[in-house]
Design a protein that fits this description.
Helices cover 7% and strands 68% of the residues.
Length: 210
Amino acid sequence: MKKVLLSLGAAFLLASGVQAQVSYGVKAGVNLPKQVVKITGEGANVSSSSKASTSFYVSGYANIFAAENFAIQPGLSLQGKGGKVELEGQKATSNILSLDIPVNAVYYIPTGNAGSVFLGAGPYLGFHLSGKEKMGGESNDISIGSGNDDDLKLLDYGLNFQLGYKLANGFLINGGYGLGLANLINDVDIPDFSVKGHNRVLSFGVGFEF
């Protein structure tokens, strides 16, 4: 797989007249996800956000350098999403596992011999793999699909933003934010009203590039 990625990246960049340099990295850390619900219609425009729950992420990626300090960064990432609310005096938490495919543009700002500040942004496509809702002592599966009886749509997409510091030895510290743009909620039978939900994910972690 590494050789395939390297060959594809090299072919793309050499076709553009740029000599390719490719590095690879892994990242892991803590997610603080929440969900935003918007209701519109009949003069109403209401937005409500859950509280952030605590989850995790694990990512692998390739850095395909198009210039000395600029790279295109495709990857694969397991992301814990969801949120928590308080209903009838009880806490309700949703935990969702998603497989995301981000493609970020990343710019590195050298800080001498110590390392580089990096910042990046780009789109992602996500697939919800599984989910559970917990309330009180009960736990139920979240159904995923495109049917009106399903709790959650399969696909998610949006924008990623990241900021961090990479040491000269490859160790990095980073923070990120995922702005979900896809509506997560299947059609809700409320006449003259539209109900939409979106993922929001704040993350902190560490990693290594080699």
